[in-house]
Design goal:
Elements lengths: L7 H15 L26 H15 L8 H7 L3 H22 L3
Pfam families: PP-binding
Organism: Cohnella nanjingensis
Protein name: Acyl carrier protein
Length: 106
């Protein structure tokens, strides 16, 4: 998926549908049930560490965004809620595009 061709609202919807509901196979949760600012871990949606790992793997599968080398503290901040994930994806895709434009390499 190319994040540059979708709006921020569409990106948040994709995070909800593809990255959370479908990838985690949540049975009683729909994208409409997940608020943009709802905490995903602990209180709120109540995801656990195994699901957090699956979300991280999903970032690459769904958006082409790698999380390797990102300190755990920063990664936790990026995975707080749907909005923070969408911002992280948007910034990562922008960095990848800038790097590609500068060097001709990803």
């Amino acid at each position: 998926m190319n994040g540059h061709l979708i709006s921020f609202e569409d990106m948040k919807q994709t995070v909800k549908e593809k990255l959370i509901v479908e990838r985690l196979e949540l049975e009683d949760v729909t994208a409409a049930d997940i608020g943009d600012e709802m905490p995903l871990f602990g209180e709120g949606l109540g995801l656990d560490s195994v699901e957090a790992f699956e979300v991280m793997v999903g970032l690459e599968a769904v958006f082409g965004v790698m999380v390797e080398g990102i300190p755990a503290e920063r990664l936790r901040e990026h995975l707080t809620n749907v909005t923070s994930i969408a911002r992280f994806v948007e910034a990562s895709l922008r960095e990848q595009a800038d790097r590609l434009a500068e060097t001709g390499h990803p």
